[in-house]
Structures are given as structure tokens and as C-alpha cells.
Amino acid sequence: PADVRADARAFLSRLSPVPDGKPQQLHLALGAADDELTLTWPTSAPCANSTVNAFNRSWPARTTTYDVPPRWWQPTARPSIHSATIRGVGPREAFEYTVGSSSAGCSRLPPFVARAPPARGALPVRVALLADVGSIEILGFKTWLTLAGAIDTLDAAVHAGDVSYAGMDTAIPFLNVTKDDEYEPLWDVYGRTHAAFTSRRAYQLGIGNHEAWYNYTSVRHRYPMAHQGAAAANPPFWWTFALGGVHVTMLSSEHDYSAGSAQRAFAEATLLGGGINRSLTPWSVVAFHRPMYSSDAGAYAAHSPGCELQVELEALILAAKVDLVLTGHQHGYERIHPVRNGTVTDMPARTTAAGDDVYEAPRAPVHLMAGHGGAAQEEQWVAPRPAWSARRMSQGCDHTAPQKACGTPYRYTDTFGYVVAEAANATHARFATQMVSGRLGDAFWIVRQQAAGPSPP
């Protein structure tokens, strides 16, 4: 569409070459301790003695690099990846930092002002949820521009896999490109796409199928994540963290999660073995990439009752009284009513004056497929819509009703964006789409205990 092309041209025009020794693609993430943040950034030159300066201290960076299989079309140079842990950061503290190196050929950036997330257990907390983003495939850059414009209203972002789309998944035989190849420069384009947000707020990232190339080498080096729980973890694949009063258990749908596996043992220890203090962090979210429930027609058998994810993990999620399951993979948005083995346990008890659905004391989690972050949308939907599918949007239209409904005038961009999750207190949380066009959307509440707290308006 013309509006997408115009936006993409404007964005690409700002991607001027970065000097070899200049830090770029800065992104903050939570540290292993509550008063820690990790900052990671690449440089094209090695840049020894790279540091982050904050709180009148200098925090040394750990520097690594990585290799990928040689290809005639692949750039041979790999960036140096620098990562430093900033300690002593207070809850919601705004702080200034500088980053870089004084080594020959390297430089330091002007100061940034970032804000730490709220203290563990603190509420309210407001977080962006997203998946399947990318950079220029097709609208990931627009999603990140929208996020940067809303940064003052957000505490962090959580990404449920399919990150840069450097993993091609497309064979071009006459160029000797296979489905198992990854084009490394797309990682740099993506990193520069999100830096305006992630240099100032924490960015918590899980993996999807498009990170699997070369044994997840690129994502492991570029996006290190710190585990905050007690169970044996393997970040960025399976691990945990807390954002205020919300505990997130990040799992991997790309690794073995069957009974007896290392990931399953971690999930059981975390969700059922005392790994979550629900008195301190009352909200429990589980995130992984592929949906357990989705009425997308292309892979319906893999994302509907009886699928492997549902058979292996749903009983655990239900027993742990998880509030929300965040996924992506299918390039659209779909909200799933609280459901158990394909049977809806709770329909919305009512609708607010603003049109938000309200689930009161649901007996199962809401599943939220937020795969509308930026990758091309070509989804087709199962008809008739399953009873467990509450709302579904893609390709600029709402596909919930028997007849799809599109905005006037029609805009493909109407169904790209992210979800704003706001836990207002220990019992009330609201989830609302933020589309880059500002038009089509969906919003709902989860009320954990009907009798506690004020009712949604």
C-alpha cells in the first residue's frame, strides 16, 4: 500500500551509516537482581574498554562476537557486542548514562535519560506486549515508532518471539540461498529500529522460530537476558522476570517442553513449585511464541484443541492459575476467551461503557495472540469462528463477525501494532490494542476477584 511505502522510505532515509566505533542499537533489559539493569550495544569496530557511566560510576562491558557460516552474499565482519550491568538502580528511577569507549577509533554517545521499571510487587504497571515485529517486513519500524511516541506512558516492553526476521526461511536457489540461511545485516536494521525506545526502557525478549538459524547464535549474543528466579533457567529460551506486580514466565515453543524435559522441569518448578509469590506479584503471565489456541486457518490443527502445546502445557497453566498467555506466530491479533481443552470456561460478564469486555473471576487464562507487531499479514481464518475465539483482526480488517469489517477508507495498517497491558491493582487489569493507524482495536479487562477493588468504568 502507498502509505506503507511512504513510511518505509521515510524510515530508511534516517538509517545513515554508523561509524565503526560508535555505539548503536542500545537496549536495556532487567538484571538478575531487582536493582540491576543490563545495557547491550554493538559496534562495528572492536572498541576495547567499553563502559557505561551512570550514578558517578563506570560499569565495564563484557565484549563478545560471533561467527555464522560463510556465504558469498553474507558480509564477513561480525559486530562486537558489548554488555554491561548497571547496579543500584532504584524503582522507577530516572537516571542519566553515557556509553562507549575512549579507545582509538571509538567514541562515546551523548547522555541518555532512562527510567527503571517499578519495584517488584508495585502497582500499577503499564507494559507493551508484542510479537512478530521485524523491521521493514512490513511495519515493524512503524510499531517501534509508535512505541517511542508513547514511551512516557510505558514501563517496559515484552516481546514473545520472531524478532528481526534475519532468518530468511526462503530459498533462492540461483543465488545459493537456502531456507536455513540468515542475513545478518537485518539484525542491525532491527536494532536501530527499536533503539529510540529500548535505550530508555527495559526490553524483555523471548524467541520464536525465526531466531533458530545457526543455533540461535545471533539472538543469544545480541539480546542477553537475565533470569530472576530460583529454578534452573536457560535464557533467552526459558526464564522468569518481574515487572512490578506482574510475574512473567517466558517459555520456548521451539524447544522440548514435554514431560521430563529440562524446560518442563523449569516450568513446573516455577509455576507450581513456589517460584512465584502471588502475594507480591499477583499477576501471572506465561509467554511463548506459537499459540496454543488460534483460529488462523493456515495451521489450525497445530493451534487448536488436541494440539501438542495444549496437550503438554495447558494442565500446568491451569493448575498454576495463570492469568494471561501471551503468544504470536500467526501474523494477526486474536483474543481467546478463558478456555479449558477447547471448552470456554468464562464469557465476558459484561461490557463497560467504553465497549471493553470484562472477565470476572475467570477460571482459566485469557490467551492473547499478539502476532500483529509488524510482519506481513496474509492470514485466513477458520469459518465458522470457534466459540473460544473472542476477537480476531488482520490485513486491515476485523474478522470476528461472519462478514469481515474494514475501516473506511480501507487501510492495511489498521491491524498492526501492540497491546498495552495495565495492571491497575492486584485484582484489575486492562488490555488494549494500540494500532499504528489508531483506528481498529480491541480492549478487555480481567478481574481476578469479583468482590475486590473498584469495578471497571
Short description:
With 457 residues, the protein is an alpha+beta fold.
Describe the structure.
The chain is an alpha+beta fold and 457 residues long. The chain is built from six helices and 27 strands. A hairpin with a 2-residue loop joins strand 12 (239-243) and strand 13. The radius of gyration is 21 Å and the shape is globular.
Mean pLDDT: 94
Helix content: 10-25%
Q: Give the oligomeric state.
A: single chain
Overall shape: it is: globular
Gyration radius (Cα, Å) is 21 Å
* Counted beta strands: 27
Q: Beta fraction of the residues?
A: 25-35%
Strand order of the largest sheet: 12-13-14-15-21-16-22-23-24
Biggest sheet statistics = 9 strands, mixed
Structural class comes to: alpha+beta
Q: State the distance separating the first and last CA atoms.
A: 38 Å
Helix count from the secondary structure assignment:
6
**What low-confidence regions span 5 or more consecutive residues with pLDDT below 50?**
450-454
Key terms:
alpha+beta; 457 residues; 15% helix; nine-stranded mixed beta sheet; 27 strands
Show the helix and strand layout.
Layout: H1 2-12, E1 27-30, E2 36-43, E3 51-54, E4 57-60, E5 62-64, E6 80-87, E7 94-100, E8 112-115, E9 125-130, H2 140-149, E10 156-160, H3 185-198, E11 202-206, H4 213-222, E12 239-243, E13 246-250, H5 262-271, E14 283-287, H6 308-319, E15 324-327, E16 333-336, E17 339-340, E18 343-344, E19 350-351, E20 357-360, E21 366-370, E22 389-394, E23 397-398, E24 405-406, E25 417-423, E26 428-435, E27 443-447
